Structures are given as C-alpha cells and as structure tokens.
Amino acid sequence: MGGCHEGRLRLRRRRSVRTAVATAAVSAGVAVLALGTLAGTATAGVGPAARGALDIAQAAPTAATVAVGYGHSCAVRSDGTLWCWGSNSRGQLGDGTTVSRNTPAQVGDTTWTAVDAGTTFTCAVRSDGTLWCWGNNTRGQLGDGTTTTRRSPVQVGDATTWADVSTGDAHTCAVRTDGTLWCWGFNRLAQLGTGDGVYYRTTPVQIGDATTWADVTTGFAHTCAVRTDGTLWCWGDSSTGQLGVDVLSYRTTPTQVGSATTWAQVTAGYTFTCAVRSDGTLWCWGDNGYGQLGAATTYKTTPMQVGDATTWTTADAGFSSTCAVRSDGSLWCWGNNAGGQVGDGSMTHRNTPAQVGDVTTWGTGVATGYHSCAARTDDSVWCWGNNWSGQLGDGTGGIGDGTAVPQPIPVAFPG
User: Is 321 part of a structural domain of the chain?
Assistant: First the structure.
C-alpha cells in the first residue's frame, strides 16, 4: 500500500483529483456531451440516452476548479488562470523552481480549463486542447517520452483534442474530445488497463477502441471511468475491493461495475472508490479503515450506498477521506481526520458525513487528501487540514511546520 519514490514512502492522494462535467443532450438522435472543468473530481452527467456522435466542447470553468496532491494544491480560476502552491520538492508547482510556496504562484500566462494534482506531479489542459504535465516523472507519468523530472510544464505529445485529465500516484489518464481514453506511467498493478505486462509507459497509449468514454479518475494503483451510456468501468489493483467488481485481486483491462447505467460521476481514492448516480445517491466501496466509505463497516467489494440522501452532486476521494457536495450547496466530509482534513473543526475520524460549517455556497469544486480545498460560488478557494508545506495557501505554514487547520480558511490569491 505505497509507492517508493525518492527513497521514502509516498502515500497516494486520490484519485481522481481532476474534474469534468458532462451533460448529455440528445437532439435528432445525436448525443452531444459537453465537458467543462469543475474541481478535483471526475464528473460526468451521462445517461442511457447519451449515445451517438460525441462532440465535446471545452470551456473555461465558470467557478474555480481545485486539485490537491500529497503536499501541494492547484486551482484554475474562472478567468482561466492556473495557480499552484505548497510543496515543490519535485517541481510540482510548475514555476521552474523547487522552492515551496505558502501562497499561490501563477503557472504561465495562458488560459487553462482543467487541472489535477498527483502525489508529486501535476497535469492540466489548456483552452487550446493541449495537455501539459510537470513535476516527478520517475515512472513516465508526465507522458513526455522520458523519465526526467520537470520543473515547468512540458507538452504531452502534439494532440490538441484533450478534454480532461486525472493524475494518480505515478500514472495518468486522460479523455480526448473524440471519446477515446489514454493512459501512461506506472503499470505494476495493471492500472493503465492495457492488458499487458509492461511495467511503465512514458507516452500515452489508447485503452481499447471505445469512443464513448466521458470521464476518468485515477487512484493509487487503480483507475475507473464512466462511459456516455452511464456504465461504470474499473481496472487495476483491487486488493481491498476498490474496483467494485467483487474481487480481491486485480483486473488488467476495464471491467464493468455491476449493470447499472445511471452512473454520473466517479472518484478514485488511495484504495477505495466513490461514485454518484444520476438519482443523486452516493455509493462507495473498497478500503474503510478510517470510515471513508461513510459507514461503520469493513471493506466492501461492491458499491454500498452512503446514507439515504438523494441530493449528492459530486464527490472526491482522497488518501483515506472523502468530501462531497449536495445540491443545496452544503459540503460534507468524512473518514481520516488526523490532520483536520474533514474540516468540521475537530481531528476526530468520522465514519458518516459531517458538514463543513454551515455555508451553503460551495460549488462543485472540491478535492481532499491529507488536506482539502474547495471552491465557493463566488470563485473564492478555501483550504483546511495539514499545512506542513504551506499547501493551505494562506501565507502560513512551511517545510517542517506541522500546523493543521481543522476548518476552512481562504486562499490568499494576489490582488
């Protein structure tokens, strides 16, 4: 349950820390899927009617999009600018240095539509459809054909049709506007879904020949994705049931999770997974050592509903905690709370959803790890939890400072 990088254990953050929103519209038998960025989770509002020609439109987010790694954070603001802060030991902030920052630093001067933060690397999509990655590259997770660590963004190939991206511990997957799915990086536990025994890949490889992928999310060593017909597929490591297919082994190619065709959004955590259905229900499965599945139970190898609420809109799974937003704009988190990442003002682990304050203006942008960040509808970004590298972005914290903040504080963007 770990990856050895730079001589020490890296506990993987999530999952799917990128976000996509897919809205299926059927007109004259043609399904149009519009993808835009929202936050650190994979979001795809798709259903059984979403079949036919796929046309994915890219647009800048209407509210901030957030992503968190092991010790760094990033956000795409509504004006399309990209900002990162926190730990920078592997160049994951993309500012050309390895100097950590406790306030946001802008990445380039272009416009971006999506971002996701891996453990110690970052990837993002520009408004022109190009894909860029930077930071740790020991397993080829940057996709530039090398294993060279990069301190500034490097382009992934020359394609201009990338719609969204998800970064894991040491592997990356992304969806193109033609509905194809591509993965690269570490493949020791079949997390790339290629069906072969290649240890790692340094450039993107297409997963199967399907052209109906709407969105993808990556965990430590597993991957899940939703298709435009509302079906859910997972592959890679399932040693704690995180694939949701009732096995404790692994799968080398995409395997369907049950037979439901109403999956709308999925997010992969360290060794667990959560997903929202189109009826607003939330389901989780896999490891439950800290109550991250939202119930006092053991691990689950198939989806288990979280409570009986039918108003969930999006969720994000972290190392061992989960956060989710409801349709009334309220934010709820649960699971591991040792660093205050649940955000309820305590450091008590929670095995059921706990509301984060009483604010009801949270957008769909939320990301959690050992710290959490979320965006409000006014485009402001708030973070909480561990702050040892300044990853909360408020101007405090730093290397060796173990300060934890158990409730949201605003990120100090310039100006």
Answer: yes
Contacts by residues 325-329 (CB-CB < 8 Å, ≥ 24 positions apart): 325/362, 325/363, 325/364, 325/366, 325/374, 327/280, 328/360, 329/359, 329/360, 329/361, 329/362, 329/363, 329/377
Tokens of 180: 């194809």
Whether 10 is covered by a domain: the verdict is no
Q: Which two structure tokens, joined as six digits, stand for 181? A: 């799915």
Count of domains observed in the chain: 1
Cα separation of 147 and 355, whole Å? 42
Owning domain of residue 222:
16-410
Q: Who has greater pLDDT, 49 or 366?
A: 366
Query: Which tens digits make up the pLDDT trace of 307-332?
Result: 999 999 999 999 999 999 999 999 99
Residue 3 placed within a domain: no
* 10: pLDDT strictly greater than 50: no
Least confident among 37-46, 161-170, 265-274, 278-287? 37-46
Q: Pick the range with the lowest mean pLDDT from 14-23, 81-90, 159-168.
A: 14-23
Structure tokens at 184: 């690269």
Q: What is the CATH number of the domain that holds 366?
A: 2.130.10.30
Would you state the torsion angle of the CA atoms of residues 285, 289, 295, 296, taken in this order, to the nearest 10 degrees?
140
The pLDDT, as a whole number, for residue 401 is 63
Q: What is the pLDDT of residue 50?
A: 39
CA distances from 60 to 35, 83, 107, 373 (A): 10, 14, 16, 19
The answer to whether position 287 is within a domain reads yes
Roughly how many angstroms between the first and final C-alpha of the chain, as a whole number? 42
Can you tell me the distance from the alpha carbon of 223 to that of 190, in angstroms, rounded to the nearest whole number? Answer: 9
Q: What does the pLDDT look like over 348-400, one tens digit per residue? A: 999 999 999 999 999 999 999 999 999 999 999 999 999 999 999 999 887 66
